[in-house]
Amino acid sequence: MEQSEIKQLAIVSGKGGTGKTTIAAAFASLAKNKVMVDCDVDAADLHLLLQPKILTQEKYFGGRSPHVDLEKCTRCGLCTEICRFNAIDNGVVNPISCEGCGFCTHVCPEGAIVMVEAFSGDWFVSETPYGPFVHARLGIGEENSGKLVTVVRKKAMEVAQERGLELILIDGPPGIGCPVTASLTGVNLVLAITEPTLSGIHDLERILKLTEHFKIPSVVCINKFDINLGNTAKIASYCEKNGSRLIGQIPYEPKVVEALVNRKTVIDYPCNEVQGIVHRMWEEVESILLPPPSPLVGEGAGAAVQSRPDDAEVNMGTMAPDGGG
Amino acid sequence: MIISVASGKGGTGKTTVAVNLALSLPKGTVQLIDCDVEEPNSHLFLSPSIHQVASVGIPVPRIDESKCTYCGECAKVCEYHAIAVILKTVLVFDELCHGCGACPYLCPEKAISEVEREIGIVQEGSANGIPFANGVLNVGEPMASPLIRKTKEKVRKDKIVILDAPPGTACPVIETVKGSDFCLLVTEPTPFGLNDLELAVGMLEKLGIPKGVVINKADVGDRKVWDYCKSKDILVLMEIPMDRRIAESYSRGVPIVVEHPSYIQGFKDLFEKVENLYESSRRK
Predict the structure, then answer these.
(1) Which of B99, B115, B131 is the last residue of a domain?
(2) Which H or E element spans position A288?
(3) Which residues are within 8 A (CB) of A147 and not within 5 positions of it... i.e. 6 or more apart?
């Protein structure tokens, strides 16, 4: 399958704890012909619901870090002077502060410092009852989380191509920094999960600003919407103004936590109305990403229609005025 | 004393604990700094008046092509591939640059100077007599750590400083918690909460920072978080129940201790336990 024919959905939020992984796991249960990928590499949770059997495991060396031969070191202090990150003190490297820039290696008059490969984390390709799953675990205190995200995404694309899968489902990290941007680049659609709180609203505006920056269409889901109906209405109206379709509103439901404790997705465990709502959300997402070919045209034209999700309802429209708090 | 509030899992209640702890301590003794520069939230609960806003930048290289010989040395030394030299063109990829200063220093022609590229702002102000600061990363900027470093420069060593950390366990969290005297890990008793708590504990062990746990929404889920803490000799310093009223005040940006002053004592007790643990860890 051509890379361009494989569609990618990224589930993000801005705010942490809104329900990205819960929804990602539910979609894993509902979607066919897809590969799952967990891009929240420093706090990965999706594997807790997908029952993965690890097929391959690899170490990733994302950057380099300085190694000092203390026998050559004359304690001249030049490395200490030039390091902008306070990460080296007369030849002694502080790995927590070191950003791996290598400046010290070039200035050391004794050539006592060299750059060596630095371990960033492990990544895995697994098989699950829901299909193939690519995930990772950033090493404790390691840098380059954005690079590790790029690695798992690349691997997911390879798996999709090898197996003729039409969709990549990405469980993204919270925030808007480099692991998030690495999770978003090149995706066809973003699903932003939010909650009807001032924090949720504030953070949603920022993540949607980011998706606009990348010119990626977005849809929104409000989780636990009944906690604050006024804020839910605010979000609904913001979405309308911003051109991000609101595709679901999920009530607060204690059964969801029960499902998670039982390591089940909300589709595979009775959760009252939640199942139906999430099912409908998936159908919406599916219709945007993988619209059925039109019956009136031939196969070639149908394929062309599929690869251009120019649906007016998901176009970003004009930039919304700053929503403030 | 510097207390950081982190978690691992997002949405467990870091900002809730940081804000309510700050509001429960005697006026004039505490400072709150919001280091979640990607998605700062504590100002939504404190409504601080901001006195000062400062732009924060990273130094990025600019090439004087009249001096440049296209030798490619700058591209060779850059560990981030932020500079490329192709024939008679030098391309700088600002967003990849960490501002380390290597290329201007090492350019044989001294053809490289640095300009500040804004990545965000640091704001300073106060709320109810509590000195406040936060960092706000410009949307689209990938790197939070340099802004977090700048935000932490506002720490006032004469106060009890509470740092609200971002979620996760990667560089932004490490940048926030490093150098703090104690870290409170806020978790929830669910499989995700436990999984991420273990990662956060691993991170703090590597950094050598004493820690304690606050369990939020304590009556949902199961007991595995308590079992884990016991097995690791980590004290559970406070439990906050799953209370819809708390969720509702939170949704309106109202701190728990304002709507339900009965919680003030709980946060005072939390601080006392942290203080005692910190003192005893210093004596070891």
Answers:
(1) B115
(2) helix A273-289
(3) A60, A62, A63, A120, A182
Predicted TM-score (pTM) of the model is 0.92
Verify that B34 and B153 share a domain, yes or no. Answer: yes
Instruction: Assess whether B216 and B104 both reside in one domain.
Output: no
d(CA A97, CA A82): 14
**Dihedral sign computed on CA atoms, order B165, B203, A117, A82:** positive
Looking at residue B79, what is its pLDDT? 96
Q: Using an 8 Å Cβ cutoff, are A147 and A153 in contact?
A: no
Q: A138 - beta bridge partners?
A: A121
172-211 of B, contacting A, C-beta below 8 A: 172, 174, 178, 190-192, 195-196, 199, 202-203, 206-207
Distance of CA A64 to the CA centre of its chain: 25
Q: What is the dihedral of CA B276, B280, B282, B283, to 10 degrees?
A: 140
Say yes or no for a CB contact (<8 Å) between A177 and B143: yes
CB pairs under 8 A between A and B: 187
Q: Which helix (H) or strand (E) holds A92?
A: strand A92-93
Q: How far is A152 from chain B (nearest CA, A)?
A: 17
> Using the beta-carbon criterion (under 8 Å), do B174 and A141 form an inter-chain contact?
yes
Structurally, chain B folds into a number of domains equal to 2
How many CB atoms sit inside 10 A of residue A235's CB?
25
Q: Residue B105's domain spans which residues?
A: 60-115
For residue B94, the 8-state DSSP code is: G
- The answer to whether residue B49 is domain-embedded is no
Q: CB B44 to CB A138 under 8 A?
A: no
* DSSP state letter for A8: E
Cβ neighbours for B141, distance < 8 A, ≥ 6 positions apart: A177, B95, B119, B120, B147
- Model confidence over A50-76: pLDDT tens digits? 999 999 999 999 999 999 999 999 999
Can you tell me the mean pLDDT for A270-296?
A: 92
Domains of chain A in sequence order: 3-60+129-314 (3.40.50.300), 63-118 (3.30.70.20)
Q: How many CB atoms lie within 10 A of CB B205?
A: 13
Read off the tokens for B151: 């935000």
> Would you call B79 and A199 a contact, using CB atoms and an 8 Å cutoff?
no
Distance of CA A52 to the CA centre of its chain: 19
Residues of chain B in contact with residue A39, where contact means CB-CB under 8 angstroms, are none
DSSP string, A116-165: EEE--EEEEEEEETTEEEEEEEEPTT-S-HHHHHHHHHHHHHHHHHHHT-
Residue-wise pLDDT for B164-207, tens only, equals 999 999 999 999 999 999 999 999 999 999 999 999 999 999 99
CB neighbourhood size of A168 (10 A) = 23
Token digits for B229?
A: 């803490």
Is A14 within 8 Å of A175 (Cβ atoms)?
yes
